[in-house]
From TrEMBL:
It comes from Solanum lycopersicum (Tomato). It comes from the Eukaryota. Residues 90-400 form the Thioester reductase (TE) domain. This is Fatty acyl-CoA reductase. Belongs to the fatty acyl-CoA reductase family. It is an enzyme of class 1 (oxidoreductase).
Amino acid sequence: MTMLHLQNLFSFNTRVPINKLFFENNTHFSSNFSYKIRSNNISHLTLGIDHGIDSSSSNFIKALSDHQGDVLAKNEIGIIDFFEAKNLLVTGATGFLAKVLIEKILRTTPKINKIYLLIRAKDKEAAFDRLTSEIIESKLFKCLKEIHGESYESFIRSKLIPVVGNIDEPNLGMDCIISQQIAQEIDLIIDSAANTTFDLRYDLALDAHVNGAYQLMMFAKKCINLKLLIHYSTAYANGEREGLQYEKPFIMGESITKEKLTSHSPSAKFPLLNAANELDFVSKLKNSIKNNDEFNKIIKELGDERAKLYGWHDTYSFTKAMGEMVIDSMRENIPIVIIRPSIITSSYEQPFPGWIQGLRIIDPAIVFYGKGEFPGVYTNPYCLIDMVGGVPVDMVVNATMAAIAKHGNLQSPELNVYHVASSYVNPLLSSQISNYCYEFFSSFPFVNSKGDQVKVQKMKYFDNMLDYSNYISKELLNRHHEVEDSKMQKLFKRKVEFLKNCSKVYEPYTFYKGWFHNGNMQKLMEDMSEEERKSFDIDLSKINWRDYIIGIHIPGVKENVLKGRM
């Protein structure tokens, strides 16, 4: 599951909370403007028009999206029928993606039996409290509440069972008796647990994504009625591969570096990547270094070093790929579906347009830009980008439910991979995102604490980090040179450091040289009936990115994350 939070993303030393760095001035949206959500009848976006793209780039991009063609489903998967009377276990249950999945299952397949929700909590009471505050009372569930009226709470509590647990512990951290009961009952496991910080400490990332995958498979083997296990990974698990990336599983021992070496020299030798060895290596390192500060520094750098050695961009994508390897190596006869979304963004249509939980990936940059604090960006303007125009969360959920029904009915002991990403069927350039942000904030500007509307400028692009850093420093410090308060001056300097670190962390993605084939998604869509394609829409080719970003995504961030203020 590809869901990326702002908290703890950067390692530079500051005690100032991020909200104080950028939200200090109480900037808010101008009340003199309103915006309209786009209609459901949207046209396909043809790239290369009115965006300053040369003809060769235009022809190349258009060729990628023209393959989609007409989809004429002759049969149906039977999505709604499959979920009837089923029992599920969902890990990472209070996360962005899992909550949208739970809402959709309850709303469209109300005859499901039980959904056990693995929740991190100190005890059962705390888990119930999180269920109430983060799910039952969430705005996300308002449509379900309208459907059931006064019986809403009794309905949802009869279906959702909170369970105290932790993905990286034996029996997933569950009480022994409860884990035995669940192992006897469940038909499906949906693994949505992950730590989505790109530069997370290596030991913590290994625990979450590698040891977590191991513990998950150990528990799955105890589930006597298990029909399918669904694991959320990320399309960026493809690492430093370039060009078109197909939906291939990772095999233990493989690495991107080894692929590149053997493609040029078949006899070349390179160490095999083994997840167990990585866990053992970090464990021994931890025991040998007694000074916590020294260990924290070494382990932080180690994750990036190991990732780059084997051909991945960062600790996150590296450990997610190893997690896939663990699942494949342990699966035996368990049917597995691995869902690899790119970047998951706000809802496109269901349960309503624009719902999002937290600032994700490029959202902080969008907000900073609207506030006049992000005058330039470190990126290739012609990079095919899955970071905002990645994939709306409801389409990831729809693909998940369709894949569950398809492979749950087949129950074939295979591992199937689905790329849920837009770069192949409906590509978006980073320059287009900037243009759409400029268009939005020119029409719907923020208002600063003095009551003045913030005027944004066209984004400048940089392909050299030194030039970009110098530009950011000069621009931001010049804008705040009149501030004499030493504390505020320090705050502005920290803003500069924050943006530099932000750009450095995202550099592999803003200059990414690959795009993600989704042939299995296409086959899934062909298997669906016309009614299923309407109710469980997975057609990413039809999204008009301008309408989505201007009419849905940015307003959704404003309403659901910023709560109408900065």
